[in-house]
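Hi C.,

You asked whether I'd gotten around to modeling the 81-residue construct. I have! Everything is below, sequence then structure, no commentary in between.
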Amino acid sequence: MTGNSNKKAAHDVRTKDTLRINNMITGEIAQFYWQLKQRGLVTSTRDFVIKAALYYREHLIELDLRKAQLENLQKRPADDG
């Protein structure tokens, strides 16, 4: 075995409840991060990413709810009152 196979084995330990992110963020999103940090709304890049993901999830749940409500309204028989 070589040293490279040990590195690969370490990466294979990941599970679906673990995520490692090591990326450079630039431009408007980076500027937005610094604005939020200055205002005390985020404490770190990790906090920023987590809050953004949670907000996005909430937004998608709201959209799914609205879609389901609309589909239910369209399935109702017309009220001939």
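If it helps when you're writing up: Residues 45-75 form the longest helix (31 residues).

Thanks,
B.
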